[in-house]
Specification:
alpha+beta; Serine Threonine Protein Phosphatase 5, Tetratricopeptide repeat; 14 helices; Cytochrome c-type biogenesis protein CcmI
């Protein structure tokens, strides 16, 4: 705001200079002096004419005419001396009141017709930007009111105008657009954020979520690729599986939706209030699978840990379904992030390793579970594992991890 006042003062000063410069350079106006100068010029011109006429023989009495010319000049001299009309006013007596009037009038008109209130509100919102940004980052905007959302949007757009390479700012603007279901703004803002920081997982997730709102199939494919890439990380945000499940359900890939919702259940545990909601979503997807004639065979596995097991916090859970003869090559397998135990997972045809050999083709089977600590499924040294007995495909499987590879 200080720049506004400084600029306005400078403009008023410039106007004052141009308006009152003539008054400061006022010249004295003496009518008698001007008349004397004019008479002298006229007398000299007339003398020159008389000389020319005398030379040409047109005038014989040149001296008489000169005498008459002098007499006419004497007659033009006023008989009474001019009385002074008083001392002229000082230019400053005009300048100062006029300057005050112009200043008051300028600011008064701006206050009435200008955007002083809007500018003050904008300045106030800009000062609140750090606080509102932190609120959005920590609570995903859930506690922000509509007024705070509008204020944050204005503040962010102002900051991004001056700092266009602020990746976090673009991400926050994209999140607000997502909350308002503004797909175009969300995609544009998240794309700029992703271009600035392509390795940031929060930005990848936000960009994928924005692309999912797009009606362009290419955008949706890119969203799916980003989410699947995030799902392979050691630590996976639960929103990744939520978006994957939503996308699979919308594409009527109900088996994949059931799989991802099942993973979410394992991550949050049965005590979470969202657990029952996910169960209802899984039941709905299974009904859709039956109506579509899709194979509904699946294996539900509950996994527990023996007290002697020392769990590596970086480990992942690998569940594999094998033929009843115990062949090492699994028919189906899945990889899950480490969660609280006991945990329950469900495998189906979506987890089949080969198209020619599906889980639903088995009548009996056995299940192995391993805690993979190095991320390489081919190495087993030091990994803890457990396996089940041979069971029918429709039976629930309970496994205790209590053995360790040498």
């Amino acid at each position: 705001m200080s720049y506004f006042w400084l600029a306005s003062v400078v403009l008023i000063a410039i106007c004052a200079v141009f308006v009152f410069l003539p008054a400061l350079k006022q010249r004295e106006n003496n009518d008698q002096l001007l008349r004397d100068e004019l008479n002298k010029a006229f007398y000299k011109d007339r003398l020159g004419e008389l000389e020319l006429e005398t030379t040409e023989g047109l005038v014989n009495d040149q001296q008489d005419l000169i005498t008459d010319l002098k007499q006419s000049l004497l007659d033009d001299i006023p008989t009474q001396p001019q009385v002074s009309e008083g001392k002229s006013l000082s230019p400053w007596l005009i300048l100062i009141p006029s300057l005050l009037l112009m200043t008051l009038l300028s600011y008064g008109l701006y206050a009435h017709f200008g955007a002083a209130k809007q500018v003050a509100n904008w300045q106030g919102i800009t000062s609140q930007l750090p606080e509102l940004s932190q609120k959005l980052m920590t609570k995903d905007g859930a506690v922000l009111t509509d007024q705070e959302m509008q204020a944050l949007t204005l503040g962010l757009r102002t900051r991004l105008y001056y700092q266009p390479k602020d990746a976090t700012g673009w991400m926050l603007l994209g999140r607000i657009a997502l909350a308002n279901r503004d797909a175009n703004t969300a995609v544009g803002a998240m794309q700029k954020s992703y271009q600035l920081k392509p390795q940031d997982e929060d930005i990848q997730l936000g960009y994928a979520q924005a692309l999912m709102l797009s009606q362009d199939p290419a955008d949706q494919d890119l969203s799916r690729q980003l989410l699947q890439r995030l799902a392979k990380k050691d630590y996976v945000d639960i929103r990744v599986f939520s978006l994957l499940a939503f996308d699979a359900y919308e594409r009527q890939d109900f088996a994949a939706a059931v799989k991802y919702w099942g993973v979410m259940q394992q991550m949050i545990g049965p005590d979470d209030e969202r657990y029952e909601m996910l169960s209802r979503s899984i039941d709905s997807a299974k009904k859709q699978m039956k109506q579509a004639g899709a194979p509904s065979a699946s294996v539900k596995v509950t996994i527990a840990l023996d007290k002697a097991v020392n769990v590596d916090p970086n480990a992942v859970v690998i569940v594999s379904v094998h033929r009843a003869d115990g062949s090492p090559m699994p028919v189906a397998a899945a990889r899950y992030p480490l969660s609280s135990f006991p945990m329950t997972v469900e495998l189906d045809d979506r987890n089949s390793m080969l198209e020619s050999s599906k889980l639903s083709d088995l009548d009996t089977l056995m299940v192995r579970v391993r805690l993979d600590s190095d991320g390489n499924v081919a190495t087993k040294h030091g990994d803890w594992f457990g396996e089940s007995k041979v069971v029918k495909i429709d039976q629930a499987v309970n496994i205790i991890i209590n053995q360790q590879y040498p």
